[in-house]
Amino acid sequence: MAGSGDALRALLRAANALLQQRRYRAALAVLKGFRNGAVYGAKIRAPHALVMTFLFKSGSLREKLKSIAQATYTHSRNLAYFVFTYKGLMALQSQLQGKKIPFHSFFAACIGGWLVFGENNPINSQIIMYLLSRILFALSRLAVEKGYIPQPKQDPFPLVAALIWGTVLWLFEYHRQTLQPSLQSSMTYLYDDSNVWHDISDFLLYNKRTDSK
């Protein structure tokens, strides 16, 4: 037992010594990026998939749990692959050119986005739409900071909120098929299901009556 403990401590010391080597820092950063991508993807997707599955999906408990596990795995895997690809290409470009320039980030992310998130599936679609909304806000702020557009005299957020809600409800009412499925499910619950009830049970207690009266 003592021998195995000594061997383990020696292995840990060797691993820690390796992690302190500057010449391996770029490669190790790529590996830790893979680890962080996998962990973060699981942390983000698991609770979201749990809530959405039990709120809006039908099926047995086993089917629901399988759906949650699959969504969590896909999100975790894709984010891990993307971070690994992005950081690897960043390190390679910096090594080849001897310095880091802004185009490196754009190019590496484009390649990673194409390879990892290029498949049109529900998970990737949600991630891309999440990023798109934040990009639009960020580019608007950047345009003001750089002086490309004047600083608004009043906060434009109320107008943005009004236009976004007006547009999304118009699409839901008249072009529902164009919206992403999870958004359709959420809005159906809020705006369509609230139009239907039979008695106090499915008016206050439940969304839909499960028995056949």
UniProtKB/TrEMBL annotation:
InterPro entries: Pmp4 (IPR019531). GO terms for cellular component: peroxisomal membrane. Coiled coil: none annotated. This is PXMP4 protein. Pfam families: Tim17 (PF02466). It comes from the Eukaryota.
